[in-house]
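WARN no homologs supplied; continuing
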Amino acid sequence: MRLVWWVAAITFLLDQISKYFVVHVLNLRSVLAIDVLPPFLNLRMAWNDGINFGLFSGQADLARWLLIAVAFVVMGGVLWWLRRTPMGWPGHLAAGLLLGGALGNVIDRLVYGAVADFLNMSCCGLANPYAFNVADITIFAGAFGLALFGGETPGAKNAS
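OK structure emitted
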């Protein structure tokens, strides 16, 4: 389980540091857009008070607290799963990515009232209108990793 906690802590810190840098140091909340390597990588400020792709946004406080509660339920479920199912290090790595990312987005909702999204990537003539953040990447990678490596692994009881 140590690996889970280390990965979660590092993930959380990378997410929060990147958000602080972009929102406050680069002042993206006022500038709104910075082209880094157009069209492949751009910074576009987006405050997401809903879920992925802005779904259920505009519901203000109700959605905010409901999504915080859902995040804690999911994190608790992942921890419960880890305690009950022996996994190897890939499963522990995936769980840490998911937990750290989920906590990063929860902190955004508590501090800003919405999740700070800022990464925007487009390619090959297709303009992507959506923005995301480091936590979104790690949540997706962690969920995908748990789907692949979250089952019982022989001899994994002592992994990590």
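Residues 2-158 form one domain.
OK
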